């Protein structure tokens, strides 16, 4: 999500949400439809790492979940783990005989870093032990940096935690969950994951997708920055539990909640098609993107033009994968490759432009001709890319796509 955006006044429903939430740290509340220990058809957990400058926006999204609680089916459950400036807690939203309801089903004894993989695992394990489900949907809510890493874990990947009562964005105190850690945990879960949705910036990159390919059926995310307001949860809760599930509807509703001139870029990935897509892509990496190839970087549609380098943050360019292939592959090669891409990415959408904190203009304009909804990293010989190239070589996509054979 975008950093440094000032919060607005919450709607009255946000006040209602917190009035409606009751505290019970035992996790033994009797709900109208289910009790702890019963098996749910589907559970959705929004994991909110909001102990940073997104704190005020978490209140807004919690209020939206409360408003949408009426749409949670009787055989499903909607949860939110919330780590903001208060002690971490787990909420459940449900339809209480025609009235939206929110209960605090567990409150932790003390604050902890929710973007520490060990703490994240503990939250998921508690939830599944007390509320087992046949299928789990996961929404990861916070700041995001895609696959990027940092030596001191200070400014990378998904999730940032600045410590209790801190609403600033100060890198020295934060920790992020690395994608490899997340993938290993999700693959080991005893329940299948229906979809993983990232309500965070820059997460729909092929590097992230490939790490998570065995974790879920679908991945819903943006290759670009998204507004701090994030998803319209009051309109999405019913879609989270649809059977059959249609991920494109989530993207449509999410995108339609923003104006086209200051909107979002989103896509859906079918994880069952990722390996076939990798097969279709690998032959062209060494052919067109080797360390000695003449790649025209400036012509490729980028989600972060020129990268971003300052005293506190370093990002490479996030290139559109479809744009890179369209410009460099032969026409017949691109047509064959695009078929595999379209199977992996069955739906995407893009506003005319989207908000950005990394440009003096305050926005980027979408190149719809190149836009595919998935970003890719392109190694470069520029000195500031040295650490990026090193970290990139640790990703599974690096090996699978043959970047080593391409001289990188």
**Poorly predicted parts:** 3-20, 22-32, 164-173
Alpha-beta content class: alpha/beta
Spatial strand order of the main sheet: 1-5-4-3-2-6-7-8-9-13
DSSP, total strands: 16
Main beta sheet: 10 strands, mixed
Distance between the termini: 31 Å
Q: Strand content of the residues, in percent?
A: 15-25%
Radius of gyration: 21 Å
The helix/strand order is HEEHEEEHEHEHEHHEHEEEHHEEEEHH
The CATH architecture of the largest domain:
3-Layer(aba) Sandwich
Overall domain count:
2
Shape: globular
Average pLDDT rating: 87
Number of helices: 12
Helix content estimate: 25-40%
CATH class of the largest domain: Alpha Beta
Summarize this structure as a short list of keywords or feature phrases.
10-stranded mixed beta sheet; 12 helices; disordered N terminus; Rossmann fold
Walk me through this protein's architecture.
- It is a single chain.
- The protein has 408 residues and is of the alpha/beta class.
- The protein folds into two domains: 12-272, 3-Layer(aba) Sandwich (Rossmann fold); 273-400, no CATH class.
- Helix content is 29%, strand content 20%.
- It contains twelve helices and 16 strands.
- It has helices spanning 12-20, 55-67, 117-130, 179-188, 206-211, 233-240, 247-256, 274-288, 321-328, 331-344, 386-392, 396-400; strands at residues 21-23, 42-49, 76-83, 89-96, 99-107, 135-141, 192-199, 216-221, 265-270, 308-309, 314-315, 319-320, 347-350, 353-355, 363-365, 375-376.
- A ten-stranded mixed sheet has the order 1-5-4-3-2-6-7-8-9-13. A two-stranded antiparallel sheet has the order 10-11. Strands 12-16 form a two-stranded antiparallel ribbon.
- Strand 4 and strand 5 form a beta hairpin.
- Helix 6 (233-240) runs antiparallel to helix 7 and helix 8 runs antiparallel to helix 10 (331-344).
- Residues 3-20, 22-32 and 164-173 have low confidence and may be disordered.
